[in-house]
Amino acid sequence: MTIVDVRTPDPKKFIKGATGDWEIVIGMEVHAQVTSEAKLFSGASTEFGKDPNDNVSLVDAAMPGMLPVINEECVRQAIRTGLGLKAQINLKSVFDRKNYFYPDLPQGYQISQFKQPIVGEGKILLDMPDEQVEIGVERLHLEQDAGKSLHDQHPTMSFVDLNRSGVALMEIVSKPDLRSSDEAKAYLTKLRTILRYLGTCDGNMDQGSMRADVNVSVRRPGGEFGTRCEIKNVNSIRFVGQAIEYEARRQVAILEDGGSIDQETRLFDAVKGETRSMRSKEEAHDYRYFPDPDLLPLEFTQEFVDELAQHLPELPDDKKNRFMSDYGLTAYDAEILIAEKVSADFFEEVAKGRDAKLAANWVINELFGRLNKEGKDLSNSPVSAAQLGGIVDLIKDGVISGKIAKDLFEIVWTEGGDPAQIVEERGMKQVTDLGAIEAIVDEIIAANPDKVQQAIAKPGLLGWFVGQVMKQSQGKANPQAVSDMLKQKIGLE
Ligand code: ADP
Ligand code: MG
């Protein structure tokens, strides 16, 4: 493939070497396990966490004479994913055999797609802090996963578990358009969000249902692409960032020393935080790819694709735009809320019929902040959308002040209950009774004649008076009413 460089070199991302600047170039190959009850070419279950070899059909164990039969659901999921990546959907694609030996690959080959994948070029939009970046997707193809080898402690014995053998994977290959570890992490995060919205992969990297191979090279800014190393199977987004930082610096050191980079496959050692050589990189022709004679080309109609397109859920970018235009949220707040579909749904439940900005503020700053602090998430949140909505209503209606609302949130968080009822029972209502406020205002003014004089010269001091009155009222006075009354009494109007 000829690579077109679509990026303008950005000095902020350069690595400073002893002999000048270097630019990092990154391309990702992500293996995403397809959400489907059965495997790609057999009816065996894909359920995670079963005993070894519970989910194995004769096809997955590669018994002679068994024939693969394509699982239509996996095809649908791959097409839906392609649509979510705004990609070209190929109405005809071909399954090939990729031949290699591995103890957990009883067939002696993996059924994959090589020259004619089911999905062609697409794109993923990244919202970086100070720019929007479009990353090209080269292709998405369907393939089988391999089994797992298990080595016992000593090691005196090895075992093969074929539960994963034959499970459908989507390999999603990016163009080498990424230029920093931050962009690479944002790419994986965004891809995972899209897959989760679509329900085509659960995106759980710690369970191995999403795995990233990271290709890294360095070059002089804007120059020829360098030789890349591929870091295999990095299993968390944070590790992807660390692996890139380490690998790019390793390559820069070699090049500045007058050496050259060997194209090789490396692995990331998370404990040491470094990459290590695994093997020299194999070329495509080493695999002796050829069309699988047991399978016909995969063909479907444009109507089949259109039908799937019509039932696609709202995607993260669209949701973000809608949150900004319909609710008036900032890009920053919208981005936080749409990161997970459950948080977007939760927000919409709180915001329904209410002041959306106030709702977003309480969801993000109070609730998410607290959940984060206590290592919880929405699935085990002590405060429900209805309860948070109740708090927002009480603030909006002027029943409680923002300060009291924080106390109320604390009570709802620890004890539960209906916010309105708690406010009623515990006398937390904001004092809007002007007579009661006036008594306190007069008292504070009388006690601080010199400050009153200063405030007349410097109206900024009004805040101090408001603070005193609020303190005296134990936070229950309506701050607006207090401020209005103080202005009038001190003569600032
Ligand atoms: P394979 O790894 O199977 O040989 P490709 O050659 O298509 O496959 O490339 C795999 C990945 O490597 C892609 O994500 C691509 O963007 C990336 N890539 C290609 N050239 C470079 C490069 N010079 N530096 C960094 N990544 C690269
Ligand atoms: Mg590769």
Walkthrough of the structure:
Strands 1, 2, 6, 7, 10, 11, 12, 13 and 14 form a 9-stranded mixed sheet that branches. The protein has helices spanning 72-84, 181-198, 237-256, 302-310, 316-327, 331-338, 341-351, 356-373, 385-396, 402-415, 419-425, 434-447, 449-457, 462-472, 479-490; strands spanning 15-17, 20-33, 92-93, 96-99, 109-112, 122-128, 131-144, 148-151, 158-161, 168-174, 210-219, 229-234, 264-269, 274-280, 290-291, 298-299. By secondary structure, the protein is of the alpha+beta class. Strand 8 and strand 9 (158-161) form a beta hairpin. Helix 7 (341-351) crosses helix 8 (356-373), helix 7 packs parallel to helix 9 and helix 8 packs across helix 9 (385-396). It binds adenosine-5'-diphosphate (ADP) and magnesium ion. The site of adenosine-5'-diphosphate has 16 residues, from strand 2, strand 10 and strand 11.
Q: Please describe the biggest sheet, giving its number of strands, its sense, and whether it closes into a barrel.
A: 9 strands, mixed
Q: Quote the average pLDDT.
A: 94
N/C terminus separation = 73 Å
**Helix share of residues?**
25-40%
Shape: elongated
**Structural class, please?**
alpha+beta
Q: Which stretches are poorly predicted, pLDDT < 50 over at least 5 residues?
A: none
Ligands bound to this protein structure: adenosine-5'-diphosphate, magnesium ion
Rg (C-alpha, Å) = 30 Å
Strand content: 15-25%
**Got a strand count?**
16
DSSP summary: helix tally: 15
Please indicate the count of domains: 3
